[in-house]
Amino acid sequence: MRLAERPFLHALHLSQCLLKYRGIASTKEHGLEKIAALVLTFNRKKLVTRTLGALARQSLPLDKIFVVNNASTDGTDQVLAEYRKKGGDDRIEIVSLKKNLGASGGFAKGMERIVKNSDAQWIWIMDDDAVPEKRALEKFRHFYGSLSPRRRRKTGILLNQRYIDYDKFKAAAIPVEAVYGRVKFRATFEGYLIKREVVRDIGYPRSEFFIYSDDIEYTWRAIRRGYRVYRVYGSLIYHKDWAKLDKVNRGLVAKPNIPPWKLYYRFRNPFLVCERYPVLRFFMMIVLSIDLQLWAFINRENAYFARRGLADGINLVSGKKIAPESLPVPRD
């Protein structure tokens, strides 16, 4: 060995030791390793298999795919069992719940199962009607690997870029090298990749939300603990926003055409998100009180559930108060 090479080799060895000490020694640690997908399904047996197919075809293979069946009544359990058997994919694990815990409770149960029964270091959360592109995870890994070691340590959540138009989603062809990230302060559980260590630090989603806004509260919880949230533009996922696509109109006023019982949680849960912030709750009360009048103008039945949600929200009432089959509307 030439003498001139020795200082270089000593320096290389020293740098490797320093990298190892700081926890970023290997290429694996620079990327995303041991990823488990978490899919929550309820009465969508025709859609959930499409989601599972998209997950199985990821160019960066998943280690496990957990499917939480939220007490479906349409034969989803048989469809999932047949899909797993026919496909021969032993990565799929089905978690069947005996009662519908809502999205909040379903995701919480699924995340708990993954943390306690697998060695997954990342959990990729989505609904049963979401379809990630083939290279979605690969693009996550590229972006995450491009961050400095310090930013990687602070990064706790990565978000897919969502498309609500399927034709545009299929036509999009964004190279892996073109992806970039932007820091975000709110997120939904649609293409939501979270580190295991973050889950262990902040806990699980609050099941008492039942549906709506639990993902916003959960993300704020992570941010308060010092973790960064990035939306990775170019890492695509298709997911319809049913509330935006289907409208009910009266005159110039238009509102999402959603089941009335869901409106209860839409009005109540924002107050639970702002539980720590009384000033925000005050402004929320003003905004939602105005919105209530618009709902009353469009549909009296909807207004009843919205009014209940607003009242319970102001009083910070939580839990499953109205079931999907709804309550009878009083005829006063």
The ordered string of helix (H) and strand (E) elements is HHEHEHEHEEHHEHEEHHEHEEHHH
What's the domain count?
2
The CATH class of the largest domain, by name, is Alpha Beta
- CATH fold field value of the largest domain: Spore Coat Polysaccharide Biosynthesis Protein SpsA, Chain A
Structural class, from secondary structure content?
alpha/beta
Gyration radius, to the nearest Å? 23 Å
The CATH architecture of the largest domain is Alpha-Beta Complex
Largest sheet, in brief, is: 9 strands, mixed
- For the secondary structure, the number of strands is 11
Which spans of ≥5 residues are poorly predicted at pLDDT below 50?
1-29
- Average predicted local confidence, pLDDT: 87
Percentage of residues in DSSP E strands = 15-25%
Draw up the topology in text.
Layout: H1 5-21, H2 27-30, E1 35-41, H3 45-56, E2 64-69, H4 76-87, E3 92-96, H5 102-117, E4 122-127, E5 131-132, H6 136-146, H7 149-154, E6 155-163, H8 166-171, E7 180-183, E8 192-195, H9 196-202, H10 214-224, E9 228-238, H11 242-245, E10 247-250, E11 253-256, H12 260-273, H13 278-298, H14 300-314
Helix pairs in contact: 3-4, 12-14, 13-14
